[in-house]
Amino acid sequence: MEEQNWEGGQEVQSNWFKFVSVGDKIKGTLLNKYFAKATIEGYQDQWVYELQTADGEIWNVSVASTKTGTIQRLNRCKLGEIVGIIFDKEIPASSKGKQPAKGLSVYTFGMDPAYQIAEEMGGEVVPLND
Length: 130
Description:
The protein is mostly beta strands. The protein has helices spanning 68-75, 113-121; strands spanning 25-36, 46-52, 58-64, 81-91, 101-111. It has one domain (25-120): CATH 2.40.50.
């Protein structure tokens, strides 16, 4: 195989949103949602929600399959709906030595008009500034 020039290349950053600290939040248009089985032993199955933020970035937000309340709320949201998720509290671990759980709240802001127009026109979602 011929050597290729890698000079000037920029690494593409991950598009996984991670809730690290209480108060972390993300808001955007729900573009897709799907269930992903764990592929690595010891990891949990998860639901993945794709959100397009007001700046046009698309982020994946994963929620462990054990967080049934959060999943039920998110699965009630429709594709094209503007959804906000906030890490609002840490819940003490039920077993000693485990990490505390992340208490997530889910908010809806109604349907994104840009999504509805794009869907009708068969085009790409271009977010509106909010």
